[in-house]
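## retry 2 of 3
previous attempt timed out at serialization; input unchanged, resubmitting
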Amino acid sequence: MPADLAVIGLGHLGLPLARAAVTAGIDTVGYDPDPRPYAELGAGRSPVEGTLTASEIRRMLSGGFRPTTDAAELGRVRTAVICSPTPLGPDRGTDLTALRDAARALAARLRPHTTVLLESAVPPGTTENVLRPLLEEGSGLVAGRDFHLACSPSRLDPGNRTHVLANTPKVIGGLTPACTESAAAFYGRLTDKVVRARGPREAEMTKVLETNFRHVNIALVNEMAVLCHDLGVDFWDVIRCAETKPFGFQPFRPGPGVGGHGAPVDPGCLPHSPRSPGNPLRMVSLAQEINDRMPRYVIQRCATLLNEHGKSVRGARVLLLGVTYKPDSADQEAAPAREIAARLMDMGAQIGYHDPHVLDWRVRERPVPRADSLYEAAAAADLTVLLQQHRTYDLQGLAVKAQLLLDTRGATPAGAAHRL
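## retry succeeded, writing output
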């Protein structure tokens, strides 16, 4: 059966988009070449932990959503949205392998007048220099003439129940004005507001700016936190005071590292994104360097605290609280907890963890023991480290029960724990 929409890539971007489309009454098919998402969805489970609940998936399926591994379905839709993962590779360049595969699968079945949209996080130039040639070569059609092509980078914030797709403005940059308007007509069915960019590159760069803004500001407060600790200044109180300024300041808070799906990007690192030499985004590179140091700084603080209480890291029982990258979510993408656990293991510590959203956690393919009773585990541990402040944690009670507590999020009351 034909459908109005094909969502290509059933991961952390594609699943919420498909849900929003089905809720809006759009006949939607979800395509992923990996059979695992198809099997998980068919069993009523989310293939990406923490993305959708079982009840949300059941409502999607009952609303007509059809997951598939059959690429032939892509030739029967009016709109196709590419939500393929674009992780950073070992060289910190964006890996576009899944995006290219999706483009080739779509191109072989692309029909005239189809609207093709790209939501994956990509460096500027990808829509025009990577996606467009693959679609045109594989289909024999011309973008902007025979089919519409636009970029609209995802702004999803996993676990955020306040800012969802419907009330978050959607930035759209089409290859031509007609492409932009076709994309706007589609997204206008899903969201309250669409913002028209000049073109695909401007839309792509918007995502880069938003991501880099977050990382650079977190790097600033991370450095400030280390400096203030060395000077004996309560940086959390500094933030509390600074955020009362009604203009010119936006509060960010330090932590044990930076996780999430959005990584800082220097577009000049990529071959299809040329830029005059001598103008790197030095602030972005420096921010990444600072944020990458934070897990090691947490380890240093752990060792110092244990030493001050007459214990060494070797043989110490260390309990890690919250192993996800953000609070009240099961998403573990790039969370610093895994690196911190691995380094503590290398130093001979006995690691355990507690997280209400993660029932099974592995570090270097080894299972980490999960604490059933939080208070009992904290009382038994030589050191408890709060890495993520989930809403269910009673931090005041935890501070009383724990032998020694390091709070990397500034979530405990002042004086109740050692804070980052």
